[in-house]
Amino acid sequence: MELNHFSHPHPLLLLEDKSDQVREPYCSGCRDLIQDSSYRCANCKFYLHKSCAELPREWDHPFHPHHPLVLYDKPQNDSPCVAFKCSSCQKQKGEGFVYHCSTCEFDLDIQCALLPKLIIGDFPKLIHFSHQHPLFFIEKHYIESADQSCFACEDPISGPIYCCFDCLFFLHKKCAELSSVINQPSHCKHSLTLRHSPPPPSHFKHSLALLANYPHEKDCSGHLCNKLPKGFFYYCSPCEFSIPIKYTFLHLFEEKTHEHPFTFLPRPMSFICDACGTCGEYCMPYICTICNLVVHKDCISPLHTIKLRRHEHSVSHIYFLEENEVRKRICRIYRKEVNMEYGSYRCSDCGYFVHVNCARDKDLWDYEIFEVEEENQKSSETLGEGVIKNFSHDHKLLLSDKMKNCEYYCDGCRRPISTAFYHCAECNYFLHECCTELRRKKKHWNVEKTRTLNFEHIFRCYFCGFYCSGFCYVSDDDRSPSICIRCFEIPDYYLAHGHEHHLFFDHKLRRECTICNEKYGKFRCEEDNCEFVLCSRCIALPETAWYKHDGYKHDEHPLALTYYDDVHDSYQWFCDICEEPRDPKKWFYYCATCDYSCHPLCALGKYPCVKLGSPVKLAIHEHPLTFMKDNLGYHKCSTCGQSCKDAFLKCVESECKYVVHYLCQ
C-alpha cells in the first residue's frame, strides 16, 4: 500500500513488520520508537506510525473546540528556534508534527492530540463544583510534566483524570469523585464538608492541617504560621477546622514489607521514623503496636527492593540489623553514616548500604535489565598466541612490549603507550593491551541505558566535554551522546590526585568548580567542612600533556599536571602560552626542567584527544576530509573565510583546496 503524505516529497510504503530494518526507527511525526506497522520512504530514512500517517489534516478537536486545528510537519511560529510549547502538556517540543490554530496560537503535539482515543465513550464530561467548565474524562494520561498537577491534591497527574485543557485544570479521577461530606476520626464532633477555596487565615490557625506533615517556612514555628491549604480540603465551619484531603484517606494500612498492619495515630507529635531514620516534627504518625514501630505516612509501605544504577545488585529495605551486625555503615550515595537503629537499604551480597531517602531518589534507579551474556561480550577475538582481531580495525594486531617511539598514543583511549600494546603491521594503529580487553556492553553508574563500545573518528564526550577520537560507549538508540572510555572508567567515589580527601558524585550539586570556575561541579568532598568541588572536565584532565603548537613550541619534555604553585614570587604566576595571569591555587601544567607553566586549556586546546589525520566524511563535500591543526593560519576556511588557527578539516584530494573549520562544518 502506497501513501502520498504532505510532510514528505516521496511516496511512503506500508510495512507490517520490522524484519527488514537495520536499526530501531523513530517516527518523524511523534518522535516515538516504531514498534508496529508503519509507513516508510524507500529513498530515505523517513518513517511514520500508521496512526500518525493517517491523522486528519484538519480536526475539530475536543481540547480546542473554538476553532479547527490544522496539522503541520513543523512548528508554526516566528521564532528562529524550531520549537513550540504544547498547550496541553506544556512541554517544549523541537521536532515532530503539530496541530496549530493560527487564530489562538494554540499548539497541540501528536501525543496529546491522540489522547481522545483513550477517552471512554462519546467524550464523557463531568460538571464539577470546583471548575466553571465541563471536564473531559481521560482513562489513561501518559504524558508526564512538572507543570501539570492535580488541582485537588497537588500530586502529578497520571492514570485516569478529568481535565479542562482550555484552563489547564486537572483532577485525578479519585479526587474528582470524592464524597462531599465525610466523618473523620481526628474530628469527631461534626461532619466535614469538601471545599476548594481556602478559609480565612483567622479560621485556619487552629486547624489540624497546621500540624500534619505540612511544609513550613524556615522561620516558622509550625503552629501559628497561618499557612493556607491549597487544593481541596475538608472543612468544619463551627469549629474553624480544616484538613487537606491527602490526610483523610487512610487510617489502617496493610504494609507490603511488614507483616502487621499500621494504625493511624491522629495526634501530632515529634518522632524519629523507624522506616527512614529521619525526624518527623508535629506529624501524625502510623504505628505498629506489635513491633513498636513509628513511621511517617509516606514510609508506611517502602519499596522492598530497589535496583540502583550505581550498584550491580539490588538493595532491600530493612528496619534494623541484628546486634552482631551493628557497626559503622556509610551511605554509598551521599557518604554519610547510616544509623543502623533505624531503617535503611542494604545489599545482602556485598554489604552495600544506602539511606532510605537516598534510595528513593528515582533519578538513581536502574529500570533496565542487564543480561550476563551482554556483559561477557568481548571486543577482541584471539587468532593465535599474541595475535588478535579487534572490532575497531580491519587488520590483525600483534602483541609487543618494545617501544620504538616514546610518543605513541593508543588509538582507543588516546593515552601515551608505556606498557604492553598491540600494533598493526600494515598501518600506524596501536592499542593498549587493556583496551583490547574492553567489554562490548557495559552499564555506567550515571547513565540509564546500557552502552555499546564503538569506535568513532571524532566525537564530543558527554562527560568531559572534550572532542575525542577512538573508543567510546554509545547508546543503542542513537539518541544519547557518546562517552569516551577515559570518562567511562571514572568511578562515582575516588581519591583525586589534587585533593587530600575522597570525592563523590552528587547529581543534585549546583556549585561552581573549584578549579576552573567555569562549569558546575558534580564531584564534591566527602568532608562536611570542605568546600572542594570538581567538574567532570577537570576530573578528566590527563596527568601529562605535550604542547607542540608552532610559535609557542615546547615539545622537549611532557608537561605534568600540577595542583598548587608554592612559588612566592607573583611575577611567575603567568601562563607561558597566553601570557595571562595564573591563580597559584588552581591546577596548571608545568615542566620543572624548563620552568614552563600554562593553563590547562591552553596546554590541551579544544581537541586534546583527537588523532591528527582522522578521516571525516561530510555531506556538504564530495571528497573525504582529514582532521588537521595549524596554529599559524596558513589556511582559510571555505565557509567563514577566517584563517584556520585551530583545528580544521582539509580535503584529501590534492587538486581540491576545500578547507573548513571543524566548528564551521
Short note summarizing the structure:
The protein is 6% helix and 31% strand. The chain is mainly β and 665 residues long. It has a 5-stranded antiparallel sheet with strand order 31-32-33-34-35, with no helix packed on it.
Q: How does this model look, in words?
A:
Among the domains are: 116-177, no CATH class; 181-247, no CATH class; 252-299, no CATH class; 305-364; 544-604, no CATH class; 615-664, no CATH class. 6% of the residues lie in helices and 31% in strands. The protein is built from 9 helices and 53 strands. It has a 5-stranded antiparallel beta sheet with strand order 31-32-33-34-35, with no helix packed on it. A 4-stranded antiparallel beta sheet has the order 1-2-3-4. The two termini are 39 Å apart. The protein is mainly beta and 665 residues long. A hairpin with a 4-residue loop joins strand 17 (233-236) and strand 18 (241-244).
Distance between the termini: 39 Å
Give the overall pLDDT as a whole number: 78
| Low-pLDDT sequence parts | 117-122, 202-227, 250-255
Query: Main β-sheet, in a few words?
Result: 5 strands, antiparallel
Number of strands: 53
Helical segment tally?
9
Structural class: mainly beta
Overall geometry = globular
Percent in helix: under 10%
Strand order of the largest sheet: 31-32-33-34-35
**What fraction of the residues are assigned to beta strands by DSSP?**
25-35%
Rg measurement, Å = 31 Å
Keywords: Metal-binding, Repeat, Zinc
Protein name: Phorbol-ester/DAG-type domain-containing protein
Pfam family, one: C1_2
GO molecular function: metal ion binding
